[in-house]
Design brief:
Blueprint lengths: L1 H30 L16 E16 L4 E13 L15 E2 L11 E2 L16 E5 L3 E5 L1 E7 L11 E10 L7 E5 L15 E15 L2 E14 L2 H19 L11 H22 L9 H26 L1 H6 L7 E4 L30 H11 L2 E4 L1 H24 L2
Parallel strand pairs: 1-9
Antiparallel strand pairs: 1-2, 2-6, 2-7, 3-5, 4-8, 5-6, 8-11, 10-11, 12-13
Helix pairs in contact: 2-3, 2-4, 2-7, 3-4, 4-7
Length: 407
């Protein structure tokens, strides 16, 4: 029994020694005369096809003020190296090796839209594998900081397109061509972002000419759709409700003493929300966000309501001191009569049944108001007229904003 164990151990040791010797011979044969400066082709007039897969791991941040995209990306690059082929049976059955990155030819890719170091794949710790048929796979990864032009016209219901570009430097399209293995980005390992979701993606290659040389570019388009609920619940809905409450300032009586302060408080609250929104948007005039136009219109309506309120209070201070109601501007006759629906015209226009004969009929306006009030009608005061006007303005602005956003 012990003899059996000894024989098995000897076979394992011999196989291990053989593998080590085979690996040493393989590295010696493959890299003895290998040069990383020469493209891995025996026929140097041909081009090297580099097949690529763009793996998007995470969107860490979309800086919409500076218009910068922060992302975590891994690439899967594959090409054929004709100098690194062998028969596994000649080297103890070894089918693949993992040489150091500095010992093998690699396509050097740069990211032209990067705002930091453009050579983002210079990390020497990424994995590279060479198979016996000459297939080489390389998995470089990096955290990208790239430029992303944002169109915030429909903010916060916008969809943005951010583009990644990869250029193989030192080689034109006759020497090296980028080939996209997929028609879109690989998002199987993607970590969801709380503010943005990926609605679609596209991967393709284009040959661009600079001066006298043509280069093969790899393009990746990522379509990002904003999740708007946070902004809607924390900004838009409070602003809409606050601007609607601003209209009710015209229901307050002048003698309450809170009419002007109520209007100014609503104006200041809208100003605060405007400052919050402005901090979230880029300092650019290329495309004005509709929400900014909407908030500006609401702010203008609030300013006009404050001015109208001040003029109403200042119109007749004597009546405010006497705590008497406002006199109507005019009376709209009712089409239908309801019990107790007749208009009670104030002060000089109101007719009492006992003093009907003492009315000064030389004033034709008073007589018209008297006739209309006696037959029943709607009394229209400055406050009620202002409330109708500002309600109409608020409705037009809000409905227009909703129509533009939902297009």
């Amino acid at each position: 029994m012990k003899l059996m164990y000894v024989l098995v151990l000897l076979v394992l040791c011999r196989f291990t020694v053989g593998s080590i010797e085979g690996m040493k011979r393989l590295y010696s044969d493959m890299f003895g005369n290998y040069s990383t400066k020469i493209r891995p082709l025996y026929n140097q007039s041909q081009n090297v096809d580099v097949h690529s897969i763009f793996n998007l791991i995470a969107i860490t941040e979309v800086d919409q003020v500076r218009q910068i995209l922060h992302s975590n990306v891994w690439m899967n690059l594959t090409w054929q190296d004709e100098f690194l082929t062998w028969k596994p049976e000649d080297y103890s059955g070894i089918k693949s090796i993992h040489p150091p990155l500095t010992d093998i030819w690699r396509p050097k890719l740069i990211v032209p839209v990067s705002l930091e170091d453009r050579d983002v794949f210079k990390d020497e710790t990424s994995s590279i594998t060479v198979y016996s048929d000459g297939t080489v796979t390389w998995f470089p990864g990096a955290n990208f900081v790239t430029d992303c032009k944002l169109d915030l016209t429909l903010f916060p219901f916008d969809v943005q397109t951010c583009q990644f570009r990869f250029l193989p430097v030192s080689y034109n399209s006759d020497e090296l061509k980028m080939v996209s293995s997929l028609t879109s980005a690989n998002t199987q390992g993607y970590t969801e972002n709380g503010e943005w979701s990926i609605s679609a993606s596209r991967a393709y290659t284009i040959e661009n000419t600079f001066v006298d040389f043509t280069y093969s570019f790899l393009y990746i388009d990522i379509h990002l759709e904003r999740r708007p609920m946070f902004f809607v619940l924390n900004v838009i809905i409070p602003v809409v409700v606050l601007s609607f409450l601003n209209i009710f300032v015209f229901l307050l009586p002048c003698d309450s003493g809170e009419k002007v302060s109520y209007a100014i408080t609503c104006l200041l609250a809208l100003t605060v929300f405007m400052s919050i929104v402005s901090e979230l948007l880029p300092k650019s005039s290329d495309n004005i966000p509709m929400v900014t136009v909407y908030l500006t219109c609401l702010l203008g309506i609030s300013v006009l309501s404050v001015v109208a309120t001040i003029l109403i209070v200042m119109k007749d201070p004597a009546k405010v001191n006497k705590k008497t109601p406002q006199s109507p501007l005019f009376v709209i006759p009712r089409l239908f009569r309801f019990p107790g629906s007749s208009c009670k015209v104030m002060d000089q226009v109101q007719l009492d049944s006992k003093s009907k004969g003492s009315v000064d009929y030389r004033n034709p306006i008073r007589k018209v108001l008297e006739d209309q009030s006696s037959s029943g009608g709607y009394c229209v005061t400055v406050d009620s007229l202002s409330m109708v006007i500002f309600t109409a303005l608020w409705t037009v602005v809000s409905v227009g904003f909703l129509i533009q956003i939902t297009k």
